[in-house]
Amino acid sequence: MHTKRIFSAFAFTMLTIMLLLVVASRSSEAAAADRQGGVDVSLGAVSPPPTAQGVLPGGKPETEDKTADKPDIDRTSWEFILAGPDNNIGTYAPYVVPIEGTAQYFDERAVGALVEFLNAARSAGYSPYIQTAYRSYSSQNYIYNGRASQIAWPDYPTAEDYAEAALTVAEPGTSDHQTGLGVDITDKYYNSLDASRMDQTFLQWLRENCAEYGFVLRYPAGKEAITGRSEPYHFRYVGVDAAQYMMEHNLCLEQFLSLYK
User: Fold this and answer.
1) Of 93, 168, 97, 104, nearest in space to 131 by CA
2) DSSP readout, 49-104?
3) Where along the chain do its domains lie?
4) What is the reported pLDDT for 261?
5) pTM of the entire structure?
6) DSSP class of residue 41?
7) Average pLDDT over residues 163-173
8) 114-153: per-residue pLDDT in tens?
9) Mean pLDDT computed over 251-261
10) Where are the alpha helices (DSSP H) in the chain?
11) CATH (residue range 78-135+175-258)
């Protein structure tokens, strides 16, 4: 009887030890799983490691930041001055110099890039002609008033006449030509700028190669709701980095500058 009690006590002790070992083992596994990514207590399954917020498995962003590669520019620098219906630059007047071989003027800080652009077009077999480059505030004012007077003739122009004139002639202070960085490049002289009469192959070459020299098409087709017009012959200097980015992402100047507000 005494021996039987000893055996029962021994068996109970061994069973208790085994249960403790099982519990300890399970606790260790749970802790390890929790360190790796957390435990789903309801199912006893280990969930995958948490990912960083906004990042999908594999390290790729959940939503791509389309402005992540934008160039590091100074939005207030001279080459980004914006003239337009919503951006009147008043009587702003840059220092301009003659464009080589023409009677036109351009901002002295960008005229070298323009000459290189023109020479590249000549090397490609074209004959670029500078129809219009820099135009001062006073010159723009004269043209604008003249157009309104033509519409109103023989009466004096009214507010309605000026509004109609603004459809074809920029109000003084809103013309890209006044920045000294805008230029109309055609294949020959035209009394009126009608793109349909111009060499389309030449205009295409200008569009495809302008960014290499720091220029962009200022008023591209499809952006009229933003820029107010479409002019396949009007190019604008913004610098090589900005020009290449704008061309790559199909941005007009207004859209590009909005990325830096």
Assistant:
1) 104
2) PPPPTTB-TTS-BSS--TTTT-----TTSGGG---BTTB--TT----EEE-TTSS-
3) 2-46, 78-135+175-258
4) 85
5) 0.74
6) T
7) 95
8) 999 999 999 999 999 999 999 999 999 999 999 999 999 9
9) 96
10) 2-36, 111-123, 137-152, 159-165, 200-209, 224-227, 240-248, 253-258
11) 3.30.1380.10
